[in-house]
Amino acid sequence: MTKLEFKMVDRCCPLCGSRDDSFRFAESTVDLSKLDAFAFASRKMPDYMHWRLVECRRCDLVYASPTPAPQSLGVAYDQAAFDSRSEARYAAATYAGFLPRIKSKLIDLDGALDIGTGDGCFLEQLLDAGFTNVMGVEPSAAPIAAATPRVRSLIRHGVFRVADYAPGSLSLVTCFQTFEHLSDPLAMCRDAFYLLKPGGAVLFVGHNRRALSARILGKKSPIFDIEHLQLFSPASVRRMVTTAGFANVEVGSILNRYPIRYWVKLLPFPAALKRGLINIVDVSRVGQLVVPLAAGNLVVIGCKRDFVFPGR
Ligand SMILES: [Zn+2]
Description:
Layout: E1 8-9, E2 22-26, E3 53-56, E4 61-64, E5 67-68, H1 70-79, H2 85-96, H3 99-103, E6 110-115, H4 121-128, E7 132-138, H5 141-145, H6 149-152, E8 155-157, E9 170-176, H7 185-195, E10 196-207, H8 212-217, E11 230-231, H9 234-243, E12 247-259, H10 260-265, H11 271-283, E13 290-303
Parallel strand pairs: 6-7, 6-9, 7-8, 9-10
Antiparallel strand pairs: 1-5, 2-3, 3-4, 4-11, 10-13, 12-13
Bound molecules: zinc ion (ZN).
């Protein structure tokens, strides 16, 4: 991996475009000399580094400013390592729990795009659920190389670009643990709206900075991370999806199901201690036990017109 260098650029609030309502939330803790190949990898050991953060009062959004220019981030993601195949599988199964409910209201199951698909685990869930013309897009090369033959050819290597897809062609757009990473998350939502058919839906999962776990851990929460250019709350994520044009927006929390070894990785302890604990749970095989916990994730579902959920 080549040494990471970033051209830093100032940023306004990525939701409302204002600077006036923002105040300092935290100074940058980034030390580029300590970054390794996993700095921009998914489900890594937290490194507790984050850019300078400000909070927009108007949107309830915490966002990084200045941040690396999008081009330099693209290089960092392309080169990021990948070692979380098993955890990605558990996450995909959790997110797939929302599919039956969404499917029952979609006009058809033709055209589904997963943005930031990693090794494409969720694409397998979409295929199993009966979706056709399933696609993923992923900026990192390593997870694509780890994808199963069933889905590898469905993954486009690169950053998500709306021009790569036909407008009005999709029934479902999903995006998991990714909108925190984007330089312009509102543009991604608007692009998703543009690509969906009328009656299509989005399903997003991300971190909730107002969740109990995040409030207890404070700046020791793994959500404060060099990869995260913004941190949402239920209010700010609703604002983003509604501003992009979606209706019947629902925001809720989810229970994540992961093996104990992954939960240990997230504990607010020094890395050496955590490696010791992971060894212990691995040797005793306790590490593979799957435990559901409220890890402070929020789920957002929205529709492009005429999409109403059962029981509402
Ligand atoms: Zn704002």
